[in-house]
Specification:
Helices cover 38% and strands 7% of the residues. The two termini are 17 Å apart. A two-stranded antiparallel sheet has the order 1-2. It is mainly α. The chain has helices at residues 2-13, 32-43, 85-95, 100-106, 127-136, and strands spanning 46-50, 108-112. The longest helix has 12 residues, at 2-13.
Amino acid sequence: QAFDQLAEALKDLFSPEWWQKGLDGESFRPTTGALGMLLALSLCNVTDAYDMSQSEASKTAPYHYYDVDGFGSLKADDNYWHKTFEAERELWARLSTSSQDVVFATGRATIPGLHTVECNGVDTGSTGVSWLRGLANR
């Protein structure tokens, strides 16, 4: 159920063009990394995420840290399965309090916990924002 709710939130927050980026993907099922991030952001005041958004290192890093040759030429920037991959990475970059230059150079994005984020000027009636706000209030 959490995967489906996150997928719906991402569809609500990002325009359809996002689902054609990268390698296009096969499934709207979000990555397990995205669920892990939401768990951390719902429990912690601040989360430092490493290479969850695009960075200099992710351009050349292998797809899996433990399997350098297992996926051939795929790099950490590639994802052939998850349509949500690029949108997830953009979401973490946008939520980060670190500058985009720092995130790209270091791979480190400092993201405030969901319960600390103000949603002023955001359409809180949207399904995606409502669901994320619900996570923050647990």
